[in-house]
């Protein structure tokens, strides 16, 4: 097995046995995307995700490291992130910047506003993906505002540049959307973007479900980053639950029955009856039986006293 390929997929958190099996089936020269698709199809999960579901005392040590398990600290993740109750955040930098610049200017301040919003909420794992060519001096056809913000975010290990290069004067750009979805999927996090990534949804069924369930859209209102309170619609989770690994279910709020004591539904009534102790919602027939039983018992006791 080619050591660089094995090392690459080990860093993503996949097991060596699964990687070797896929490379044997597809051949040593198989493309990384094809290998990844096959690993997903086999049902192989990165060990970083498996460890959340089944904590194991054994830890696989990645080559060249001392104490970190594969996939646990890639892209500069902190050790505390694994125990954090908030989901990792992956921001589509181009989408956010262009949205803040009204689709005319690549506004880096928009990225900063989004990062600050998640920081204030307590998220520790935040990554922003931007194409490498945005480092270059701005041109008339692609203006950039506040470019120094990108340097600062890169210094803080928040911003990640997706690769690009020039071949015979033409720029060859890697598809940054694939990086965004892949990292968010591997980290079991949230994608921040107004893009629906339809091409990637069609490419991979696992990604389709993930994008549908974990895409957080947003708006900018007077330089204020604002995600919706109901990211998956009216009947979906709240924003707090959407961004949390362990959602908190709201306590049921019982609505009082409009018929009160005149209600004839008994235990089938879906409303709250304060006159029924401990919410013991008996049917009308059961209530009558209970009352009859009590009156019969009282009658027997009186007879015994008289005797």
UniProtKB/TrEMBL annotation:
The answer to keyword Nucleotidyltransferase applying to this record is no
Alphabetical UniProt keywords: Endonuclease, Hydrolase, Magnesium, Metal-binding, Nuclease, Zinc, Zinc-finger
MF terms (GO), sorted A to Z = hydrolase activity; mRNA binding; RNA endonuclease activity; zinc ion binding
The coenzyme or cofactor needed here is:
Mg(2+)
Q: Where are the zinc fingers (C3H1-type)?
A: 251-276
Q: Does the keyword Protein biosynthesis apply?
A: no
Q: Where is the C3H1-type domain?
A: 251-276
* Pfam (any one): RNase_Zc3h12a
Q: Which InterPro entries match?
A: Rege-1_UBA-like (IPR040546), RNase_Zc3h12_NYN (IPR021869), ZC3H12/N4BP1_RNase_Reg (IPR051101), Znf_CCCH (IPR000571)
- The superkingdom listed in its UniProt entry is Eukaryota
Give GO cellular component annotations, separated by semicolons. cytoplasmic ribonucleoprotein granule; nucleus
Similarity remark: Belongs to the ZC3H12 family.
Protein name according to UniProt: Putative ribonuclease ZC3H12D
Q: Which organism is it from?
A: Eudyptes filholi
């Amino acid at each position: 097995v080619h050591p660089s390929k094995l090392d690459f997929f080990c860093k993503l958190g996949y097991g060596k046995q699964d990687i070797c099996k896929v490379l044997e089936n597809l051949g040593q020269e198989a493309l990384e995307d094809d290998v990844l698709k096959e690993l997903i199809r086999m049902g192989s999960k990165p060990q970083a995700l498996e460890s959340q579901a089944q904590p194991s005392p054994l830890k696989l040590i990645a080559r060249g490291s001392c104490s970190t398990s594969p996939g646990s600290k890639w892209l500069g993740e902190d050790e505390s992130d694994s125990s954090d109750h908030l989901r990792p955040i992956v921001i589509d930098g181009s989408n956010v910047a262009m949205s803040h610049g009204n689709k005319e200017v690549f506004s880096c301040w928009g990225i900063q506003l989004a990062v600050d919003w998640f920081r204030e909420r307590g998220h520790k794992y935040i990554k922003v993906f931007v194409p490498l060519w945005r480092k270059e001096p701005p041109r008339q056809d692609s203006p950039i505002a506040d470019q120094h913000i990108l340097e600062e975010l890169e210094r803080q290990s928040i911003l990640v540049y997706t690769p690009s290069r020039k071949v015979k004067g033409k720029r060859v750009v890697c598809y940054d959307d694939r990086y965004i979805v892949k990292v968010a999927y591997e980290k079991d996090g949230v994608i921040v973007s107004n893009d629906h990534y339809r091409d990637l949804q069609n490419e991979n069924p696992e990604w389709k479900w993930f994008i549908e369930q974990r895409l957080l859209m947003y708006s900018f209102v007077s330089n204020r980053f604002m995600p919706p309170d109901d990211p998956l619609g009216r009947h979906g989770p709240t924003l707090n639950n959407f961004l949390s690994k362990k959602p908190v279910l709201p306590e049921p709020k019982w609505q009082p029955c409009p018929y009160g004591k005149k209600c004839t539904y008994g235990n089938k009534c879906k409303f709250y009856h304060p006159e029924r102790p401990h919410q013991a919602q008996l049917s009308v027939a059961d209530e009558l039986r209970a009352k009859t039983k009590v009156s019969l018992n009282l009658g027997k006791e009186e007879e015994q006293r008289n005797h």
